[in-house]
Amino acid sequence: MPISAFNAYIDESSVARSAAAQEYLVCAAILEPDQVDMVRQELRPLLRPGQIKLHWTDESSSSRRRIVQAIGALGPMNVIVTHLSERQRKTERFRRKCLEVLYYQLADLEVYDLTLECRTEAQDKKDRAHIVALQGQGLDRGIRISHRRGGDEPLLWISDIVLGAVNASHIGEHQYLEALEQTIYLKQSTPESLVPTGQNERP
Q1: 10 Å Cβ neighbour count for 62?
Q2: What are the backbone dihedrals phi and psi of residue 15, each rounded to the nearest 5 degrees, phi first?
């Protein structure tokens, strides 16, 4: 089994881009193994009293500025994959499309240890079945996934904040993404993603 040069911590977001279009996004925050404890220690003080985890939608503008500045200074390397589609209620298929592209990108970067945020037990089981199926189709068999609760793993907060900044940029609040731009190593769409047609649908 290959030794992972980096660890990745993955979160996702689904958001309407227009009356007709929605976008699913996944982000992997990539860190060297010897960085992870230090970065956790830097992230925990960003919590407000009584707060369990950082979550973009729960933060005020001033908190967002403070958090983005701190994460930008920590310098994680972020990989983002997006899928633009017509609006639909069910998004699991779009999540799988994004994760498939992300897994291959991470394998190319020799990132094999991946942590996703827990959802339900059934959904986590489907995540594991999905990656096994992809490995049967050629994905590097060294890729390993685990699931952690967001309140237990501060490193998952990074991807949440990065995707929050991406989504804020789509509604004209560009300052957050500009502060994190240097940390974004790669941003790409899935092969089946629609071509953006409106301002708010920019990739």
Answers
A1: 8
A2: -145, 145
Residue for token digits 């003080």?
A: 45
- 28-39: average pLDDT: 96
The backbone region for 50, taken as left when phi is positive above 0, alpha when psi lies in -120 to 50, beta otherwise, is left
In the three-class reduction of DSSP (H, G, I as helix; E, B as strand; rest coil), residue 182 is classed as helix
Beta pairing class for 184-189 and 77-86:
parallel
- Cα separation, 112 vs 23, whole angstroms: 26
For residue 16, being part of any structural domain is answered with yes
- Tell me, yes or no, whether 77 lies in a domain: yes
In a domain, 138, yes or no: no
- The Cα–Cα gap between 8 and 28 comes to 6
The phi, psi pair for 78, rounded to 5°, reads -110, 135
Distant-in-sequence, close-in-space partners of 117: CB < 8 Å, separation ≥ 6: 10, 11, 147, 148, 149, 150, 153, 156
The boundaries of the domain holding residue 74 are 11-98+150-194
**The two structure tokens encoding residue 188:** 């790409």
Residue 30 β-bridge partners: 8, 77
Q: Domain total for the chain?
A: 1
Number of residues in the chain: 203
Strands 144-148 and 111-117: parallel
Indicate the pLDDT class of residue 146, thresholds 50, 70 and 90.
Answer: very high
